[in-house]
Design a protein that fits this description.
Blueprint: H1 2-23, H2 30-45, H3 53-71, H4 75-93, H5 100-112, H6 114-122, E1 126-127, E2 130-131, H7 133-159, H8 161-185, H9 191-208, H10 215-221, H11 239-248, H12 257-288, H13 297-322, H14 334-365, H15 369-394, H16 398-417, H17 421-431, H18 440-443, H19 451-456, H20 470-473, H21 478-498, H22 506-515
Antiparallel strand pairs: 1-2
Helix pairs in contact: 1-2, 1-9, 2-3, 3-4, 4-5, 4-16, 5-9, 6-7, 6-9, 7-8, 12-14, 13-14, 13-15, 14-15, 15-16
Keywords: Membrane, Transmembrane, Transmembrane helix
Protein name: DUF4173 domain-containing protein
Transmembrane segments: 7-24, 30-50, 62-91, 97-118, 138-159, 194-212, 262-291, 303-323, 335-356, 372-392, 404-421
Length: 521
């Protein structure tokens, strides 16, 4: 036990040193991949961690996310990296967890409880006959009061400017003293670098030291994927019973409560089907075939798309409510199921309308992140509807929906990270500049990986006049756009030349190669 604790603590110390070496004044790129390889290696070396198939899959997913940061180096790739890291850590230390949402929460709890885990590990270390447990027990007593004092000091400083002034002076004096002390012993070290090292130690400890409380894992194990009919006694009341009784009074105390809910469900789904049928008929006749943009084309599509997406989410919530329990086993529920399936089909048609609306938006105004986001969200709605259908047809639980959709969403997140969205947006819009009313200021504000494409197509960076849109009517001086582009190119050259190999990524390298810039070392 002591040998294992010593190994983990030594790994945490080395990880903290590696962290400050890799990330001090560097951009997130190749250094993330190196750090992840270290974490993966230590995790799989740790004898306390079971090397299950699930852990290997999420380990490979995280490694892939780290590689994609080096290749694409986009904001999405960095977000995917952090999500995959937390999922790997969550599943690594609590492998009986089944959903990515619980794994994510478990990893967050593990990060928050780093000091307690570290103290627990350190207290098990002994040097000969001398135990360190009394010393770390004293630290444990001091740590919580210090955190409380710091928290309330921040609150009081936010509430009182005079208190904030004195608190800032005290902190500055403490910082100056520590800086002088460090410079006395180590001339090349600074207080900020020490804090960076401490952050690396805390982060690495949170990723490597297991959270000793398994209550979250045990709680999730109670979740079932298959619905079973629950026969309740008259005295047994559920939360749904109490909520429904607020609106129905004594109606639920009757023997026919389930039949009443069935009748209400049939009426609700019948009315909703008729309502949605009317909307879908209007969309099919006016939007699907022969659509002509009107004066407020942009606002019309934007508002309509947001409303439809919200309605689809609400539709799935309604279905989940009615098929949450014993109504799934009601012998005369065929009519209700048929109406629910019909409503799912109609919502699928509604999603097609969302795709068409967004397609028109892209056709007339070009690609943007938000319009791509609408396509992605509509795709997720299709997946959600499919899993809701399977839930109703196979009598699955909501826990099952969370499990399946979570895995699918994570897989799609990794898949979408393969695409270099900024480059795709710029290439599409500039290739369709004669037919699309582009926003040149939006294009020139995208990430630096698009600079070579923009530089090659300077003559195309102007508002299109092919459509009678609001963007086309705005006077955009091309000289100002070119100055902005030149400033961004100059900033990139200066920034790239100052960075080391730790900040290397493929996109920056391609951009630097185009402009003839070399990295510092």
């Amino acid at each position: 036990m002591k040998t294992k604790s010593n190994l983990l603590l030594l790994s945490t110390l080395l990880g903290g040193l590696l962290f400050t070496f890799l990330f001090w004044k560097e951009r997130l790129a190749l250094n993330l991949l190196i750090y992840s390889i270290y974490l993966l290696a230590i995790t799989f070396i740790n004898p306390d961690v079971i090397k299950s198939t699930k852990l290997k899959i999420y380990g490979l997913a995280h490694l892939l996310a780290a590689i994609l940061v080096v290749i694409n180096n986009s904001d999405l790739s960095v977000v995917t990296y952090y999500i995959s890291l937390l999922l790997f850590i969550g599943f690594g230390h609590q492998q009986q967890i089944r959903t990515i949402f619980t794994a994510f929460l478990a990893a967050i709890l593990q990060m928050v409880t780093v000091p307690f885990n570290a103290i627990k590990q350190l207290s098990q270390i002994s040097m000969g006959n001398v135990s360190l447990k009394p010393f770390f027990t004293l630290i444990k007593y001091i740590f919580v009061p210090v955190i409380i004092v710091i928290l309330f000091s921040c609150l009081y400083a936010a509430a009182n400017n005079v208190f904030a002034h004195y608190a800032e002076n005290i902190l500055n004096h403490i910082g100056d003293f520590l800086d002088q002390l460090l410079h006395f012993f180590f001339k090349d070290l600074s207080f900020e670098r020490i804090m960076h090292l401490c952050f690396g130690l805390v982060l690495t400890g949170g990723l490597l030291l297991a959270f000793f409380d398994k209550s979250l894992e045990k709680t999730e194990l109670k979740g079932k994927e298959q619905l079973h009919r629950i026969r309740r006694s008259l005295g047994q009341k559920t939360i749904w019973y109490n909520i429904a009784k607020t609106f129905t009074g004594n109606l639920l105390t009757r023997k026919m409560a389930l039949k009443t809910e069935y009748i209400v469900g049939v009426i609700s789904f019948a009315a909703l089907n008729l309502l949605l049928l009317m909307l879908n008929t209007i969309d099919i006749t006016t939007l699907w075939f022969g659509y002509e943009p009107t004066g407020n084309f942009s606002g019309e599509l934007h508002q309509g798309t947001n409303s439809l997406i919200f309605s689809i989410v609400m539709a799935m919530a309604v279905i989940l409510y009615y098929f949450r329990g014993n109504l799934n086993f009601y012998p005369k529920s065929k009519t209700l199921r048929a109406l629910a399936y019909a409503w799912m089909v109609q919502n699928f048609i509604l999603i097609i309308s969302v795709f068409i609306r967004d397609g028109y938006y892209i056709e007339f105004h070009g690609l943007t992140h938000k319009r791509i986001g609408v396509l992605v969200f509509a795709t997720l709605c299709i997946i959600g509807l499919a899993t809701v259908y399977f839930k109703v047809a196979k009598q699955k639980t909501i826990f099952y929906l969370f499990k399946v959709n979570g895995n699918v969403w994570f897989a799609l997140l990794l898949t979408f990270t393969f695409i270099n969205w900024d480059v795709l947006i710029v290439k599409y819009n500039l290739n369709h500049v004669d037919t699309v009313s582009i926003d040149p200021y939006y294009l020139t504000s995208l990430s630096e990986k698009t600079l070579p494409i923009l530089d090659k197509n300077r003559s195309k960076i102007h508002p299109s006049t092919n459509n009678d849109s609001e963007i086309a009517k705005v006077d955009q001086p091309q000289e100002a756009l070119m100055r902005k582009l030149d400033q961004r190119i100059g900033y990139f050259k200066e920034r790239y030349h100052q960075e080391s190999w730790l900040s290397w990524n493929l996109q920056d390298w391609n951009t630097a190669k185009y402009f003839g810039v070399d990295q510092k070392n």
